[in-house]
Amino acid sequence: MSPDAVKKLLEDVQAGTVGIAAALEALRGLPFVELGHSTVDTHRALRQGFPEVIFGLGKTVAQIVEVARALGPEANVLVTRVRPEAAAELTAALGGVHDEASRTLRLVRRPIVPRGRGPVAVVSAGTSDQPVAEEAAVTAEMLGNEVDRIYDVGVAGIHRVLHKTERLRRATVLVVVAGMEGALPSVVGGLVGKPVIAVPTSIGYGASFGGIAALLGMLNSCASGVTVVNIDNGFGAGYAAALINRREEVA
Amino acid sequence: MSPDAVKKLLEDVQAGTVGIAAALEALRGLPFVELGHSTVDTHRALRQGFPEVIFGLGKTVAQIVEVARALGPEANVLVTRVRPEAAAELTAALGGVHDEASRTLRLVRRPIVPRGRGPVAVVSAGTSDQPVAEEAAVTAEMLGNEVDRIYDVGVAGIHRVLHKTERLRRATVLVVVAGMEGALPSVVGGLVGKPVIAVPTSIGYGASFGGIAALLGMLNSCASGVTVVNIDNGFGAGYAAALINRREEVA
Amino acid sequence: MSPDAVKKLLEDVQAGTVGIAAALEALRGLPFVELGHSTVDTHRALRQGFPEVIFGLGKTVAQIVEVARALGPEANVLVTRVRPEAAAELTAALGGVHDEASRTLRLVRRPIVPRGRGPVAVVSAGTSDQPVAEEAAVTAEMLGNEVDRIYDVGVAGIHRVLHKTERLRRATVLVVVAGMEGALPSVVGGLVGKPVIAVPTSIGYGASFGGIAALLGMLNSCASGVTVVNIDNGFGAGYAAALINRREEVA
Amino acid sequence: MSPDAVKKLLEDVQAGTVGIAAALEALRGLPFVELGHSTVDTHRALRQGFPEVIFGLGKTVAQIVEVARALGPEANVLVTRVRPEAAAELTAALGGVHDEASRTLRLVRRPIVPRGRGPVAVVSAGTSDQPVAEEAAVTAEMLGNEVDRIYDVGVAGIHRVLHKTERLRRATVLVVVAGMEGALPSVVGGLVGKPVIAVPTSIGYGASFGGIAALLGMLNSCASGVTVVNIDNGFGAGYAAALINRREEVA
Amino acid sequence: MSPDAVKKLLEDVQAGTVGIAAALEALRGLPFVELGHSTVDTHRALRQGFPEVIFGLGKTVAQIVEVARALGPEANVLVTRVRPEAAAELTAALGGVHDEASRTLRLVRRPIVPRGRGPVAVVSAGTSDQPVAEEAAVTAEMLGNEVDRIYDVGVAGIHRVLHKTERLRRATVLVVVAGMEGALPSVVGGLVGKPVIAVPTSIGYGASFGGIAALLGMLNSCASGVTVVNIDNGFGAGYAAALINRREEVA
Amino acid sequence: MSPDAVKKLLEDVQAGTVGIAAALEALRGLPFVELGHSTVDTHRALRQGFPEVIFGLGKTVAQIVEVARALGPEANVLVTRVRPEAAAELTAALGGVHDEASRTLRLVRRPIVPRGRGPVAVVSAGTSDQPVAEEAAVTAEMLGNEVDRIYDVGVAGIHRVLHKTERLRRATVLVVVAGMEGALPSVVGGLVGKPVIAVPTSIGYGASFGGIAALLGMLNSCASGVTVVNIDNGFGAGYAAALINRREEVA
Amino acid sequence: MSPDAVKKLLEDVQAGTVGIAAALEALRGLPFVELGHSTVDTHRALRQGFPEVIFGLGKTVAQIVEVARALGPEANVLVTRVRPEAAAELTAALGGVHDEASRTLRLVRRPIVPRGRGPVAVVSAGTSDQPVAEEAAVTAEMLGNEVDRIYDVGVAGIHRVLHKTERLRRATVLVVVAGMEGALPSVVGGLVGKPVIAVPTSIGYGASFGGIAALLGMLNSCASGVTVVNIDNGFGAGYAAALINRREEVA
Amino acid sequence: MSPDAVKKLLEDVQAGTVGIAAALEALRGLPFVELGHSTVDTHRALRQGFPEVIFGLGKTVAQIVEVARALGPEANVLVTRVRPEAAAELTAALGGVHDEASRTLRLVRRPIVPRGRGPVAVVSAGTSDQPVAEEAAVTAEMLGNEVDRIYDVGVAGIHRVLHKTERLRRATVLVVVAGMEGALPSVVGGLVGKPVIAVPTSIGYGASFGGIAALLGMLNSCASGVTVVNIDNGFGAGYAAALINRREEVA
Asked: Which of A30, A37, A211 sits opposite C206 (nearest CB)?
């Protein structure tokens, strides 16, 4: 609530056009719904321009369903990290489309409004990084972006990524997903003049330490303009890409 | 070199308007200058739209001067991590302005073209985070952005940051700098619907482990849209903010 | 045994009212029962004012039953970390109430004496933190405290926790449970002037490292008066809260 | 500002006894003073019942002086982590007493009101832990507590701490400071039925890893009711002890 | 082979009483048997005075059987870390006694010669440390030592271990087993003037990090004379105790 | 594509013997095949002289089969980290030989050309290191090398490895595989004047931390000429050994 | 105080031969002297058979002098980790001999009673490990042991240590000191049938991590009977060796 | 000593042409010189074909001089990690050439015999990696190799390294030096079919953790044939390169 809004409210109270109870309510009006186990943030769509996304990991099917319903019957909803064994039950209860590759459930009840200033490139280093890359891609698409998938172009065969230079440069923002040594964002970041969001994955073994090697590699990237999200956090990267890519007029 | 450019070059060769030696040269023409110790990337301005920034840490004064000169007499140059004791020598050799708070040297030879779509907010949690915050702010300014500094608004006195909500929301991109537990980006990320770049600082002691606590906190932020750079990497955050904020027409 | 008690005992020996064997016994009288596998501390109730709590993790059902019985038929007993598959067998052997949410078994044979100076607030950041929060809440209740549960008020939607400020301030001690970046105790600690016990949880993935991120965040809290217990240690937090909250007259 | 206060304010506006500007101001009135580098939280005394303590580490003498003055001429002020070489300059500017053992500067302008329900015991394991123990002790004293210092009673000579059992039991809250393996809080926690705040110190070498060994030992304490603060954080322990020990009638 | 033995051999060659082939063989004679997958060290009994112990973890039943047989039909053999599901098959093939508590298989074909100078005390902190303690105890027994088991005497109830002081002091060497904060060896080491071998266990959760907390605690023990073995390495502790305790005349 | 080749191509364009489209194609011709999920590098045989090896971990059977087929019907193919349960399906689809010890599938369609300058010794410390050692050995054999396996010669029985000195010295390159403390490469590296590739394994428990102890031991080897690969990376060691051992004339 | 002694005391009280005050005193009599900063354990000589050793690190010269004096004018005293710049002042105040190589000060006022059953071998891997090795050697000597120094016999030149096999085998206990990969104790442990105390040193760089690599190597030693002390803890190793080596009749 | 040599010696003893004392001596003859502090391995030249290199770090000037002299007046000697302040003293005592860039002292008394099969490429990512790269280059040169230095070609400007592809491919072995994210070896390893030795450097800040990020990146390299040495270990890489590159006929 902006100071101007508060001033206007106070003037209305002074003028008698708004009663005390109503004013008190307006000053207090809290943008969330309490479910007991969860406090659903229904105003986030207003505040950030996107609906709430439900992080499926560690939630029961019942909890996911309840939260999804609390968002209202017309909301577009994205559930991430859907366990394969919960997918059928969820789609039965909520409808929508389950996508195995990205481990997501999508409920598209209203047309997705295109919001991006240009394509979001989702780039991955290896075959095994695909689930994380797809989570990023699907998230960006749900938030109104066109996505260009450029997969399996890791740095050990550097010509593979160089060959894609034009597509990389066409993107307005790039999500680069890699496990093992996590070097791909540095190379991509050096090739383009656009924001690069690096996503380390837990792909690897031994001294990859579940993605720490890739994470450290990306944090120490010698290419300027690279920022990093948590290990395997495809959703976070897709969401950040959507925020970056958002056209002002549809924000 | 784009495919179209190569096609054009080949057509010129076929037509005889370009000789073989010249064509070979063109295909080979490499956008860097070799200094022995450094290979200066003079085409980066073309490739990314910004001049090369010189990372001062671990370079001798002579090396910095040589690299700065290799960028040409008209380039705007930013030197970061300038050691206080090297500042006088550097300004004597290169001119420019040394700024102690941000540990930078700025050589502004041409007017800085405004490139941002809106203000970049640089937000910091504590007094001691200021050098990193200033490095981010100065970098963003050098790259053509208006910067709104919002300092010392850490989460232990949550009303301090809440009071700044309007200014936070006016920014098109936010750089949030914090040491210790690094919680500020989560709070800011929840308040705004804009990209947040989190910068952990090495401020703290004991189990802050030189910034690891803040870094982990930021990577695990429960607010969507937060991305992270290396500990104390104010430059990287300012650079990424500039890439994100860049108006298409001046890219 | 206090010096005065020893002095009294010696005087009794000197006076002949206590025999040597009895005195020796008194000086030796050890406040525990040996079960072979365990040495049950039956005097803890005297020493700390609370009964022994049985940590169920890593104990067989038979061991838990034997320890519970060694505490005497009238003791109130709390078993924590009860494996779901052991619950039926335990309640069959011991009676009592198994609570799935907190993973506890409670044997309430005598009325629980109210011991607190005020309510203990148990605050949690997310839905998945609930088992740990409930373990803290149930422990505090078993030890004679009124508990006020304030759940799912993580910092990414800061208005959720701010809305609860009055309830937070009414508590005499607060247990704040959070995973991921563990920022909630800092915010709560800044809002209230009461002891805050922070409990990191293992909720998260990737660089949360099984709760290390939250643990470090809490140890580095910029809010004064925050103390921390082990990852997922809801019991420890509830127990410490009870010690802090205890009214002198019922200690 | 409580809902009742807001309601009252609105009624006053409605009644015309409070003007819009004044009401707006009241709703906005922010409890801090902006110094540019710092945002001093002058209302903390109200909110938490104690004055702000200035953490001296990483602040210039000028910054400390400015913050101390912003707290007002009558405030009792505690500056911690005072560098020995800054002490003279600080006392010249601010007055007060510098204490080398605890690395603090105390400005006691008004009598310190006794606030504790009983003595705070500050217990240390070894000679080298003394600076941290003293920081805790001085902090607790400044906040109105009687402190009982019990030093150099580490567990390798277990009779030393056992001999102090009566004094330990007289305390209403205990701060236990130890480096190396950090075992003392477990032993003390088992001897008393009171809240124990464990403070790991960076004392040790090799695999003590700057206090990590002690920190982990304390977090894994097998004694119930032990909570932990950051390595070397004597101030935090003293502050938490004061919060725990506070008599309701003087809160 | 000692220099004297070599000298004697050479003299025999010179004298013609030993042929070249035999001498070459003697100089080469290698004290091991090659099984393909394993190179069994049959002379270790000679070299160290004890038979080889077979570490069962990561070996197939067939491999264990083959190695056990290679040690000869009269050797006393100890197999450690026997998986419960492999026990029946192993005893069927080799005979011997499987002990679940210590996870060992013992083949006692010859009377075990008493070798110790006094009893070995095996001391444990908690019920869950028992498997590791038993592995140490059984190992020491197999190597000819009398073992005094003192279990569940962790430091949180310090009177439990103090009550055992006399038994602790009677031992010539002590193995002290503890998980969580690993403080027991420090207390025991301070009570006795004998070698203490500390064994950290992986018992604990959260910040115990699988035994790291206990390991670090023990390495930083403030009691002199404490040495440490790997996490859960009951065998190693029992073996070292046997080496320390060995009477010279039976070495 | 070498500069000479480019020059030749340009001359052909100039001479009209190559058309623009063809030249453009030649300049672009990319040495890989896109499969959607994977980008198979078919020219690696040219570039490095060996066929692509398929890392089986984290790939579905269908993906492995598709990649194997993309390498062409005449290629020799090595699949590593074959899950036992996938072996039958893979051999049904592709033919070839599955080897359980090394967890590999080998498709030898053309005679393997001997490429080594001498034997590659693969040395292992313990029985449990065998799968990693075999992966190295099989890889080296598939790449045209004779392999000398020297197994179970760990340093605790130092005579075992010393006895093999002659065989160690005959090798032109040595792969030394060890878990636990990883000391074998130091000893071997001191015995021979040849390149030693050290492979830490995850064999061990407790403070071996899944191979970190062995990895650090090998990185800190006091023997010159030792280089290290990732934990359990038998393939990488075998591949590097093959590169080192390669005869120039068959490269 | 043993139960028998207590019984005897009680009988004396009953008999009137000991008064209450005296008995109380006897039961209380505490074996330490309080110095304010330190609580000197004067009875340790009785309890463990050795005088207290003063750990010099982190103590002022004045504190060391005061503690040394509290031990009595006839005690043999060993001060370890003596800073070179404090040596002159200490010897001026206390007398004794400062030894630079071991960083110790020795006050030998009474003849050192030989206490060992045989020689203690102190073995080191490299030249730089000497200070730690000497600390161990001097400690063992002060506690009544003959020491055999075997230095610079690291495993990269394995013949160096093999050449010393006879001397190694003559020792009754061995202290083995090594930095870098810390492999020497494994080799020595395999050569002898005696207790081996391994001391990791902080010698090394990069991935030696200040001695962690050596520490982990030693904890994972494949040789049975190896126990480990803290990084650089020469004193602890020498002390443990003395405890192990002690002849019963002089204990 | 080979079996054949032993056989021959025994035959000589049998034949009386070699006396017992001489034979004993020959069997014992140990290839090292004992200096007290060091045991110089004079036969390493024989055993490995290269002279001993003296690691200067942590040795006094006197110790370095003594070791250098023990290697004989005709030996070529390389001293690494020469502290700048020790250089003058060392060259005064030993002669030779001090090179600041590589921190080495070279004593070339005999012509260096070319031993390589081709050039060794030493490749570095950034200006600050130069000291480590030069240590590798100088080591390789001292051991008889031609070195091709290719510096400052980090992956953020990928065209820099691609432009050097031909020179990279001409080398028979490559040493690739990089700090920060350590990605260069992966790219180089993908471009060439030759052994690549990766050297992580401690260049970087924050989450580079003194070279850990680069080390992990290199250990997880997705390019086959990459092996790794310790952080900043230029010497080790140069030495390994020389072993790999050695022509058989000059070994």
From this structure: A211
**DSSP H or E run through G199:** strand G196-200
Which two structure tokens, joined as six digits, stand for C16? 């002949």
Element (H, E) at H227: strand H226-228
Q: Give the C-alpha separation, G121 to G149, whole Å.
A: 6
Which residue in this structure is represented by tokens 């999200």?
Answer: A229
H-run or E-run covering D104:
strand D104-107
Q: Name the residue with tokens 């000789």.
A: B19
Would the pTM of this model clear 0.80, i.e. be above it?
A: yes
ipTM: 0.82
b/e per residue A63-85 (b: at least 16 CB within 10 A): bbbbbbebbeeebbbbbbbbeee
Q: What is the nearest CA distance from E182 to chain D, expressed in angstroms?
A: 7
Tokens of F107: 């498709």
With contact defined as beta carbons under 8 Å apart, do F140 and F242 qualify?
A: yes
Cα(A244)–Cα(B196) distance, integer angstroms: 9
Tell me how crowded residue C113 is: count the other CB atoms within 10 A of its CB: 11
**And the tokens for C197?**
């016990």
Neighbours of chain F (3+ CB pairs under 8 A): A, B, E, G, H
In this structure, what is the dihedral angle of CA atoms E4, E7, E9, E15, given to the nearest 10 degrees? -140
C-alpha span between H250 and G28 (Å, rounded): 80
Q: What is the pLDDT of residues E119-129, one digit of tens each?
A: 999 999 988 89
Which one-letter amino acid corresponds to residue E39?
T
User: What per-residue confidence (pLDDT) applies to A39?
Assistant: 52
Residues A42-54 have pLDDT tens digits of: 444 444 556 678 8
Report how far residue F148's alpha carbon sits from residue F171's, in angstroms, rounded to the nearest whole number: 8
Indicate yes or no: CB of F6 within 8 angstroms of CB of B24.
yes
Alpha-helical runs (H) found in F71-146: 84-94, 130-142
Per-residue pLDDT band for E25 (boundaries 50, 70, 90) equals: low
Tokens of D86: 């800054």
Does the pLDDT value for residue H2 go beyond 60?
A: no
Is pLDDT of E43 > 50? Answer: no
Please write the tens of the pLDDT for every residue from F94-131.
999 999 999 999 999 888 989 899 999 999 998 889 99
End-to-end CA distance of chain C: 18
User: CB distance A39–C151 less than 8 Å?
Assistant: yes
| Confidence grade of residue F12 (pLDDT, cut at 50, 70, 90) | confident
Query: What CA–CA distance (Å, rounded) separates F187 from G153?
Result: 12
**Token pair of H160, please?**
């820099």
Tell which residue, H167, H115, H162, H110, has the closest CA to residue H140: H115
Half-sphere exposure of residue B95, counting CA atoms within 13 Å on the CB side?
9
Contacts of residue A13 in chain D, CB cutoff 8 Å?
Answer: 10, 13-14
CA count, 13 A, side-chain hemisphere, F16 = 2
Chains touching chain D through at least 3 C-beta pairs below 8 angstroms are A, B, C, E, G
Q: Is the Cβ–Cβ distance between B239 and B139 less than 8 Å?
A: yes
The chain A residue lying nearest D3, using CA atoms, is A24
pLDDT of residue F73: 82
Question: In this structure, what token pair is assigned to residue F118?
Answer: 């001498």
Residue B162 has, within 13 A of its CA and on its CB side, a CA count of 21
- Give G43-46's long-range contacts (Cβ < 8 A, gap of 24+): G44/D157, G45/G75
F230-241 in b/e burial notation, b at 16+ Cβ within 10 A? bbbbbbbbbbbb
- 3 state SS of G79: strand
Q: Which residue of E has its CA nearest to D223?
A: E156
Give the nearest partner residue to G222 out of F181, F216, F218, using CB atoms: F181
Which among C153, C164, C222, C230 is the top mutation candidate for probing chain B, defined by the most B β-carbons within 10 Å of its own β-carbon? C222
